[in-house]
Amino acid sequence: MTAVLVKICGLNTEAAFDAAVAAGADWVGFAFFPPSPRFVTPTRAAALSARLPDGPPRVGLFVDPTDAAIAEVLKTVSLDVLQIYGAVDPAALRARFGRTVWRAAGFSAATDLPGKLGGADALLIEAKPPKDATRPGGNAVSFDWRIMHGWAAPGPWLLAGGLTVKNVAEAIRQTGAPAVDVSSGVESAPGVKDPDLIRAFVAEVRRRSAPSGPD
Fold first, then answer.
1. Is 69 inside a domain boundary?
2. Nearest-angstrom CA–CA distance, 203 and 213
3. Any bridge partners for residue 106, and if so which?
4. How many Cα atoms occupy the beta-carbon half-sphere of 151 within 13 Å?
5. Does a structural domain hold residue 215?
6. Nearby residues of 190 by Cβ (< 8 Å), 6 or more positions away
7. Tens digit of pLDDT for each residue in 156-197?
8. What is the pLDDT of residue 137?
9. Helices (H), 37-140
10. pLDDT at residue 215 in the model
11. Stated pTM of the model
């Protein structure tokens, strides 16, 4: 059995950052997308990251970013991973910035699931956003994990979308996810991370191991 990895996304306070690191999160994430209630400026992200410079890898979330926008963020805060929503070329971003690139996208049917990495280093799989959503992810929406039964992942991937302490074990069991990404599921209100929920979520995942495949 392989231990399931955990990313805590949308960190924006000292208490949340410290809780994620202390709980043993494998990645910590910052959202550089102004419509998100979890949005942080590069300066704010740098201040949080500086609390433990040698901590877990930092992930920056971007939506339809220009190269200039990413470069501006990287001037202020060091990131290990670029998590990208939108029509971008992951290989080109990796070549320019020398960072790992994750491609994030929403799905609602088995036929939508990707058969290729599309130049990315990993995929982030979540539900399609609601029609009235103002952001492509972080909408606290899950999907029918059964659509992933029989899916042959083309490479590394993470499961996201509506995960909570109560359902993450079932999500792992149904999908065989090697890694999970949570944001709204460890909040007491939109954009307000709850340190206790962060600790509980990581602990719950740690009690589980990814099965060899979905049932």
1. yes
2. 22
3. 126
4. 25
5. no
6. 37, 184
7. 999 998 999 999 999 999 999 999 999 999 999 999 999 999
8. 47
9. 42-49, 67-76, 90-97
10. 52
11. 0.90
Of 206, 179, 186, nearest to 7 by C-alpha is 179
- Which residues form the domain of 100? 2-207
Tokens of 186: 């460890």
Rounded distance, CA 111 to CA 162, Å? 21
Q: How many domains does the chain have?
A: 1
Distance from CA of residue 14 to its chain's centroid?
19
Whichever domain contains 10, its CATH number is: 3.20.20.70
Residue 19 in domain = yes
Kindly report the number of other CB atoms within 10 A of residue 25's CB atom. Answer: 26
Q: Read off the tokens for 177.
A: 């996810």
- By DSSP bridging, strand 187-189 and strand 179-182 are unpaired
pLDDT given at position 85: 93
Residue 212 in domain: no
pLDDT at 125 over 50: yes
